[in-house]
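Methods — Computational structure assignment.
A single polypeptide chain was analysed. Its primary sequence is given first, followed by the predicted tertiary structure written as structure tokens.
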Amino acid sequence: EYIDNNMMADNKLTHAAILGKDDGGVWACSEKFPEVTPAEFEALVKAFEDPVANASAGIFIGGTKYFFLGGEAQVVIRGKLGAGGICIRQTEQAILIGIYGEGTAPPECNLIVENLGDYL
């Protein structure tokens, strides 16, 4: 419900997912969301601990590398890939991932993902 009615509702995101914070299990995702490998999930967990220290590694989701743009420890990580990018928001129990493509401005994606994270 959160995927279809909140994250994907206005067609600003190309993919969206909600993962369990403890194990990376997929709670919900959009169609064709790229699979997050255990190694990628572990790297996300480390990036949330100290985004700046992990910036040089980039952000990997489904084998795709996003250039690290910035973040706030324990809250949010943002990345860029060509004309698109990614916003990843951590809550107490979940990790929300929004991926956007050409035609969506980064702040539009950030608002969708971060506002839902604030709500949850």
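Note: The longest strand covers residues 64-72.
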